[in-house]
Amino acid sequence: MPFEIVRNDITRMNVDVIVNAANRSLLGGGGVDGAIHRAAGPELLEECRRLNGCETGQAKITKGYRLPARYVIHTVGPVWHGGGNHERELLASCYRTSLELATDYQAESIAFPMISAGAYGYPKDEAMEVAVETISRFLLYHEMSVYLVVFGRQEFFTGKKLFRDVQEYIDDHYAETHVRKNIEIRREKLWHRDEKAALEMDQSFFADGMSLPDAMPAPKAGYAPAARPRPAAKAKPVPDAATCEGSAADVDWNELVRQTDEGFSAALLRMIDERGMTDAQCYKKANVDRRLFSKIRSDPEYRPSKPTVFAFAVALELSLPETEKFLGKAGFALTHSSRMDLVLEYCIKERIYDVIQINEVLFDLDLPLLGNSSSVA
Asked: Dihedrals φ, ψ of 147, to 5°?
């Protein structure tokens, strides 16, 4: 996808450019800076010596040497002093200047670390907000795959109201679905072993005002399932395809194909036109790569992943019933047994149609992100 938050080691990212959160000397240091210099080898330090340092908020580029990346862009993030010393503007400049420099070098993919969020003390949630906002704005006007690399398990969005609201929604529906399902399975097994205990179980639920939806009525005492004899299959005469009415020879196959319900690709293109959007407006809003969209447009039989379908549903700002129908076009359904489905259900109900904002929640819940994911190891 054009923008993806990933958990990885940035020195292992197979992209055109990786970004180094450097100090002003550009001569190496701790954290990400030290790791990149170690992985690239001594040649990187030799080239950095010739750059004569770098100012805060600016960026300079070198070769990648022993790294998988062709280039390293070195940028100097601001030290956090409480937010009153232009830290936000300087941090945004780090991302923006690095992206512009990568564009000058015809890079198609770039990976950023979390700049200033370590030893420089920038609050992690605010640092992430600046990164997401700056990168998202850049991608509105440029075609590039951008990765924001987080090393290890760190929570950046759990303090946000949307995350808390979604988590509460999941707790209310996901847990309830699984508890009720487990109760029904236990109840069914109990009726085969101990009818008295099963009756007591049912009575306790009714006494508490609970119901058992979708459960069969309680079996009568002495109930035991018996095998039902299957009727013998009757031999059917084989019709003569050349003479029999209604045979395959008489079927109008072209008419049958015309009656087939539209698939995902046709439905997507129709809805883009109905909403007066351009293709680019739609796939960018969906955080979907232009090449994937071209595949979908050119192949009426294309079968997307569920996150991709959700991404387009959000981009098109579909209602919940429209989303369910749209998922069906690709062979999927919305279910309360999936945490990802519950996140999307909540966001669509609340008319939250920002893919990046939704992906922040999905990322902290360790769920697949919306759009089409790329493999970068």
From this structure: -115, 135
Let me know: does 117 contact 124? Beta carbons within 8 Å. yes
Cβ-based neighbours of 225, under 8 Å, separated by 6 or more: 192
Distances (CA, A) of 157 to 7, 96, 165, 362, 365: 15, 22, 12, 10, 10
Tokens representing residue 165 in the block: 């609201």
> Looking at the predicted structure, is the pLDDT value of residue 94 above 90?
yes
Tokens of 72: 């390293």
Name residue 364's amino acid: D
Q: Which residues contact 123 (CB under 8 A, 6 or more apart)?
A: 80, 117
| pTM as predicted | 0.69
User: How far apart (Å, rounded) are the C-alpha atoms in residues 80 and 120?
Assistant: 6
Distance CA 101, CA 123 (A): 26
* Segment 226-270, tens digit of pLDDT: 444 544 555 555 555 444 455 555 655 565 455 457 899 999 999
- Tokens 């936000």 belong to 88
Helix (H, G, I), strand (E, B) or coil at 10: helix
Q: How far apart are CA 305 and CA 330, in angstroms?
A: 8
State the Cα–Cα distance between residues 259 and 257, nearest whole angstrom. Answer: 5
pLDDT digits (tens, 9 = 90+) for 72-92: 999 999 999 999 999 999 999
Q: How many CA atoms lie within 13 A of 250 on its CB side?
A: 9
- Of the pLDDT bands very low, low, confident and very high (cuts 50, 70, 90), residue 165 is confident
The number of residues in the chain equals 377
Phi, psi values for residue 311, rounded to 5°: -60, -45
- DSSP-derived secondary structure letter, 55: -
In this prediction, residue 40 has a pLDDT band, given cuts at 50, 70 and 90, of very high
